[in-house]
Amino acid sequence: MADDKFTRRSFLAGTIAVPFLIPALGVSATRPRVVVVGAGAFGGWTALHLLRNGAQVTLIDAWGAGNSRASSGGETRVIRGVYGPSAIYVKLAARSFQLWREAQKQWNRKIYYRTHALWMIHGEDAYERAALPLLDTEGLKYEKLTPAEAGSRYPQINFDGIRWVLLEEEAGFLLARQCCQLVLDSFLSEGGEFLQKEVQPSNPSNTLEGLRLSDGSLVHADRYVFACGPWLGRVLPDVMTNRIQPTRQEVYYFGIPPGDLKFTEQQFPVWIDHGERLIYGIPGNERRGFKIADDTRGEPFDPTNGERLITPEKLDAARRFVAMRFPALKDAPLVESRVCQYENSPDQNFIIDRHPEASNVWIVGGGSGHGFKHGPAIGEYVARVVLDQQKPDPFFQLARFQKGER
Fold it and tell me: Residue 11 pLDDT more than 80?
């Protein structure tokens, strides 16, 4: 999903660490065995980059890549560069743009739609303005528009109440579910092993000797990476129960007029309405309809057993917003809907760190609704860290949380 007012996008401070390269420990002499748990945006890309960095990798997922319970499931996800004053995320986004383009070429499949992203800014605009110099540094182009200028380009939108508009040129959307499967396909074709099994909860100390799976079997490796999204608290209960909070998020797809391209990816951008709430949408969506969602964090949710039925009150709120901001869609029918989840960390930043009690276990998660776009760059980074080729960045580490939080 794309991105409560300033929750997910709120001033995520930090600067990107300069990669600290040291000689790989044992990578060239013997292939380290690594198990990665979770085939979503973080886990799938991590497994692929580990494989390409010389490891012998087994990837495990309970329901498979891009499944309907996963935070990485669904048709589309936004990719954009605006992240307030957080240089670390802008840099990750810039790298991910490059890696997504390379993957699209390799797969010979269009999975990245460069529609631009239209930020509609109501009042407080410090978040967007702080991002501009960082976009400049990374070479991510943009335009600043008045509502009148934006209205001449996109007459489909009612710009009432908007102070100014920021148009990100490189931004757009990714075909999320398909991307997860394509990453898995690449992983398998390049020599990786995949198991569709459930991993049993584990509370490792010192070193993890093996993982027990749902069929009673054991999987052994030298190093383990847990990148299982909203299930991190269940799989690693001692460390992650209070550090990952899955929340219920509703997404709606409204039908556009027949034969009308004005609300498709051919003529319409990804959009973000940044007022008291942050509401976003994606055109096209593989012909599923005009997507709209509220980024406000929902109620706690069980990603395994939770019923994925939308609520009438939230649907009515979405209809009212569509009628106001996109008048031509005032009476558009709901043609599809989804209930998915964010897996939120306490500060909405990613968690990438060694397990505090098990030296051969790494934890990767806390996508917090904005992780999918960063998948390739996160996978690249995690692979280097796990293989001792790069020093971990403190920005992502568990030490930032107060001691005794568990």
Answer: no
